[in-house]
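Sequence design from tokenized structure. All designs in this work follow the same two-part layout: the structure record, then the generated sequence. An example of the structure record is given first.
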């Protein structure tokens, strides 16, 4: 764990060094590798924190679509009232996906195993956020991620750590006259199992 924390700091140090400065398109070269970013080890506590950070988990915080979970094929014990706008107004406790409904498999190993997962597992929305945050952090406040195409292969499991890497594969001025670098991205666990791949386009300032 000590080695993992040291590895985590490498990415944080990169952000400190960039600060409010600009990462110039002119200075980036094809073949450059972004610093590794580590998230984890994941735990039920960290996954629960992620779940509670989603705005749609706030009672009355969004307009619910009113999905019929049973019609989607969920069994009775999984269907529940998650995303039920009518039940939320009457008894929101019964709509809490952390404890009831299909989402509870993320946080409860017993329910995770019911759907074939070995233990608690992470959220797809978080994986997407990790990718965006990783690339945006490298770009700095003067750059921006303008396009991202991601392909998920598997979730983050409790007890595992997530490693993110990316390589600059192209530089160009696009049809909107933006100075863009293209990166190939990969997310793996500590064993090297690929969790996600992505292709990103990042606009950077020029000198």
């Amino acid at each position: 764990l000590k080695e993992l924390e040291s590895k985590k700091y490498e990415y944080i140090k990169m952000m400190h060094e960039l600060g409010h400065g600009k990462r110039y398109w002119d200075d980036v070269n094809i073949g450059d590798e972004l610093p590794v970013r580590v998230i984890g080890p994941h735990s039920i506590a960290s996954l629960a924190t992620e779940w509670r950070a989603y705005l749609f988990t706030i009672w009355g915080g969004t307009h619910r679509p009113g999905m019929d979970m049973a019609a989607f094929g969920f069994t009775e014990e999984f269907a529940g009232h998650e995303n039920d706008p009518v039940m939320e107004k009457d008894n929101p406790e019964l709509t809490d996906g952390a404890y009831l409904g299909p989402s509870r498999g993320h946080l409860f190993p017993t329910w995770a195993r019911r759907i074939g997962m070995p233990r608690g597992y992470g959220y797809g929305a978080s994986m997407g956020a990790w990718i965006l945050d990783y690339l945006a952090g490298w770009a700095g406040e003067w750059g921006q991620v303008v396009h991202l195409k991601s392909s998920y292969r598997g979730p983050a499991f409790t007890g595992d750590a997530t490693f993110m890497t990316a390589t600059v594969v192209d530089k160009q001025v696009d049809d909107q006259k933006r100075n863009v670098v293209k990166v190939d991205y990969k997310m793996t666990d500590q064993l090297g199992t690929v969790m996600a791949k992505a292709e990103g386009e990042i606009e950077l300032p020029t000198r």
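Residues 2-42+122-203 form a domain with the Thiol Ester Dehydrase; Chain A fold (CATH 3.10.129.10). We note this feature because it recurs in several other targets discussed in the main text.
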